[in-house]
Amino acid sequence: MKSLSITLCLLVTAMTFAQEAPQEQSNPTVQDTVKKTKTNELKEVTVYGNKKQYLKVESDKTTVNVRDNAMLNSGSSLEAVKKLPGVITSPTGSITLNSKGVSIYIDGAPSTLSGTDLQNYLATLPANAIEKIELIYNPGAAYDASSSGSIINIVTSTKRKKGINASFNINYNFNKYQKPSPQILLNGKTKDLSWQTMIGYNYIDNENKNKSDQIFTSFNPQEHLIQKNLSVITNRNFYWRTGTNYKLSEKSNLLFNYNVNLANDRVDRNSSTLGTGIDYTNKSMVHAKSNNHELSLQYKTKLDTIGKTLDITAFSNFYDKNPITTSSGFDNGTPTSYNGKVDFKLANYYLKYDFSIPFNKLDLTLNTGGKFNTIKVDDIGTYNLSATESITDFDYTEDNLAFYVEAKKKIKKFNFAAGIRFENYKVDRTAVQDGDVTKVNFKNTNFFPNVSALYQFNDNVKLSASYSKKIQQADYNTLDPNYFANFDQYNTSNGNPLLDPTYFDNFELKLNAYEFVTLGANYTIAKDKNLFIFEANPGELVSNSTFHQFDKFKTLSFYASFPIPIDYFFKGKAEFEKRMNNMDKMNYIFININYIKTTTEGYDFSFKNKPVMNYAAEAQFILPWEIKNNISYTILQKGTWEIYNITKPIQEFDISFSREFMNKNLKVGVHCFDVFNSNEVNALVSSTNLETQYYQKQDSRNFRLSLVYNFGNLSLKKENTEIETEKVKSSGGFGR
After folding, report:
1. Are the C-beta atoms of residues 618 and 71 closer than 8 Å to each other?
2. In a domain? residue 727
3. Residue 410: CB partners within 8 Å, gap ≥ 6?
4. Rounded-to-integer distance, Cα 77 and Cα 68, Å
């Protein structure tokens, strides 16, 4: 059945593109467009604007249009990322792309935040600020070596309109709780200066249920604890995002962005622990304030008419948070208490340059560049468990200097790319816990090669193979003993400051057809892989959540992505070809399938290691009265994910209805997420002295009303003030 669907898609799309090929060949390139006069530029934009493309599949990346996709643009960036083709959310909350680890980039710069801090940031970044998202499967030397296996690059809106324009957007979320999230977006252009400002506020409540059925195997007989936890989470944050683009000349641009996010969150938690002679209850409250400031300055220029380009980017962000925990409870009638306070500060400074030199006569492009990055983390935690006080002080400094060179050469139907990146890391870690000092100081200097080859059967079918070597420095959330800051009589959680970097060897083989169809395979070998685990010391009834390293971790995966063109079967060939030029009017289903097999050395499974399958589908249907219906469904079946045994499928079904009014100035949407309330995690995790059956159920079924109203001088055409300086490229994830 799968082969039949793929074959139908190939045949249908082949006929469509065969008829459109002469028109596509006549379209000017981006470089030609820059050379044209302003009148021709506007005409060019109009021609391209008639053909909306939500998804474009290339040999090195897939680009997803978010701005015009009602299923993706109504919520947060995190919600949008999780619905992208090939993206899978693991039982621990991390995100992968076709089974490989993911590093998150925003506007081409890697995010410094990690773990829940990164997830919270993406949850507060509105998706309607995103123009598109690039899924980069096997990044080359131009990208940081610390990208594990793949990159998700979130590209925010960069196009402006003349005059002053605005849109008002409000999302009203309701389940058991009802909270609004208003936003206003202003943008405009005056002479050579274009600008955009987005101001908004999020107020969201939800619940999270956890249950752990734990067996402590070092006891004889074995001890059994059942732990339950109900958390009511309140997220409140204010954001201000400002961007300017000054056109220095016809060939040069200067871009400046300043973003600030202020959060005031609260978690009310009720927990209990039952076991032999144990009856423990606890009520706690966590109050966390945080703020994140980001500044970026980018200079982009085209040096000559043959296409030499220079791109210089300076970026800094400053993040701090101050979670305070208070709790009180009873253990077999005896009063207990826990108070904790954490003072966390992070500062990041990032500078890079990229230089591209094309040799058109030789069909050769040479890219080179470098960067310097320094990150500093200071974190002090003070804890008081039933009148016993402890202090943990964690300091982390990382300096990274890197240079790269990469070449791409075309020989007849072959395209070859090869590059090498030099990375020099200097890392200093110090953890002081109740007077015990742990120091890890090391320098890591290495070369990271990449090579790829692409064979082009014709204009629409390409076969590519690639290899890259990568490194992943342990993020602060996996290192910092304060990071989780969750303590009571029977639970602790902390980072592991002794973790080493992880090295990756990534191999990929992929077939692309007609910008929509992909068949591929990945094979990754990871050395010293860091994974989240529950552990227990011998003879102690205390479960500790932390990270451990595993000697070697191998992942083999196969994946397929393809559309089912419904209009071709139900509307006929002529109507299908007509709608291909306007995806707003097209009915389709887009399928993504993944097969993942992992092998872990240095770890004994207490269960049979089985491959896992993931299926995802996104559909669009045009209903009467011009109502657009979007549907999304994902299911991760039972099997082994890394070292976790998924005992029940993880699935979600979302549905959305939207319609435009008032000459498309007003957009109204009704959305329901996790319609059947089936998104929950059931997994088994085993370690030397502890076996944990873990259950987690978030308040994932919720409804949303979205309203967007645009006003201003909307009749004027958009003018793209960017100078195209994309390099020719050959092509870390969330922590828990």
Report:
1. yes
2. no
3. 363, 364, 416
4. 14
Cis peptide before 221 (omega within 30 of 0): yes
Residue 162 has pLDDT above 80, yes or no: no
Beta strand 150-156 pairing with 100-106: parallel
CA distance 474 to 368: 27
DSSP-derived 3-state class of residue 40: helix
On the question of pLDDT at 401 being above 80, the answer is: yes
Q: Is residue 726 part of a domain?
A: no
Q: What per-residue string of b and e applies to 122-131 under the rule 16 or more CB within 10 Å gives b?
A: bbbbbbbbbe
Could you tell me which residues come within 8 angstroms of residue 703 by beta carbon, excluding any fewer than 6 positions away? 173, 174, 175, 670, 671, 672, 673
Q: Between 731 and 417, whose confidence is greater?
A: 417
| CATH code: domain of residue 580 | 2.40.170.20
* Average pLDDT for 117-141: 84
Cα–Cα distance list, 63 to 133, 212, 616, 646 (Å): 6, 40, 17, 31
Q: For the chain, what is the domain count?
A: 1
679 is a domain residue: yes
The pLDDT, as a whole number, for residue 342 is 92
- Mean pLDDT across the stretch 158-175? 72
Q: Is residue 728 part of a domain?
A: no
Sign for the CA dihedral angle at 637, 638, 640, 641 comes to positive
Distance CA 217, CA 541 (A): 10
Strand stretches in 138-177, DSSP E: 150-156, 160-161, 163-174
Per-residue H/E/C for 582-646: EHHHCCEEEEEEEEEEEEEECCCCCCCCCCEEEEEEEEEEEEHHHEEEEEEEEEECCEEECCEEE
Residues found in the chain: 736
Q: What share of the chain is helix, strand, coil (3-state, %, to 5)?
A: 10, 65, 25
Q: How far apart are CA 509 and CA 519, in angstroms?
A: 8
Q: Quick one: what percent of the chain has pLDDT higher than 70?
A: 86
Segment holding 227, helix H or strand E: strand 223-247
Structure tokens given for 582: 């306007």
Q: Report which residue type is found at 358.
A: P
Domain coverage including residue 368 = 2-282+289-719
Predicted confidence (pLDDT) per residue in 325-369, tens digit: 998 889 888 888 888 899 999 999 999 999 999 998 888 999 999
